[in-house]
Amino acid sequence: MVLISISLSWLVLVFLGVPVGIAMIFVAMGYYYATGMGLAFAVQQMTDGLNSFPLLAIPLFILAASLMNATSITSHLFGFAKSLVGHVRGGLGHVNVLASVFFSGMSGSAVADAGGLGQLEIKAMRDAGYDDDFSGAVTAASSMIGPIIPPSITMVIYGVVANTSIGQMFLGGVVPGLLCA
Predict the structure, then answer these.
(1) Which of 36, 42, 107, 142 has the fewest Cβ atoms surrounding its Cβ within 10 A?
(2) What global pTM score does this model have?
(3) Residue-level pLDDT at 17
(4) 117: how many CB neighbours lie within 10 A of its CB?
């Protein structure tokens, strides 16, 4: 009965135009009040969920990507990928994908990959005569390799939530990630 009333309360709030996150907060507060648990219990549960060593890796991945952008490691990484496969036909498309593979192996995030290398890759492809739409599409598609190739933020979160081995998930992501590239 409590589940039905909570679900209906949330739906009513959403249909009234309350933002989804705010509606969830109000419904959760109502649930804690109705069951007599109190808001102190809710705060304790939220902080216990954040008190996880593997989740510490997420801001550190983001910090690593920011440092790589600030210290121009991304331009050196792009130059290295260009020296490996830039000479073949359609080379900058291959360079785009290879640089994304290297960068995702360091940052673990598709957003960091697109943000870090994206401007550099699109500018290089534009200068070489590629269409902007094609350059953006290749960059967006190559940045999607980030969540597959370890270390991956998505794998860390899934490993923590599902209580599975993050190391085994990393091992399981290497081959599919390289095959996608």
Answers:
(1) 36
(2) 0.63
(3) 93
(4) 29
Reported as a pLDDT band with limits 50, 70 and 90, residue 89 is confident
Q: What is the pLDDT of residue 22?
A: 92
Distance CA 82, CA 99 (A): 8
The distance from CA 26 to its chain's CA centroid, rounded to whole angstroms, is: 28
Helices (H), the chain: 2-15, 20-35, 39-50, 57-70, 73-85, 91-107, 110-127, 132-143, 153-162, 166-180
Token pair 């902080």 is found at 47
- Are 82 and 95 contacting, i.e. CB atoms less than 8 angstroms apart? yes
Structure tokens at 34: 């109705």
Residue 127, SS3 per DSSP: helix
CB of 138 closer than 8 Å to CB of 93: yes
With beta carbons less than 8 A apart as the criterion, state whether 99 and 181 touch.
no
Closest CA to 168 of 152, 144, 145, 146: 152
Residue type, 65: A
The highest-confidence range among 126-140, 141-155, 167-181, by mean pLDDT, is 126-140
Other CB atoms within a 10 A radius of the CB of residue 60 amount to: 11
Percentage of the chain modeled with pLDDT above 90 = 10
What is d(CA 56, CA 79) in angstroms, rounded to the nearest whole number?
A: 31
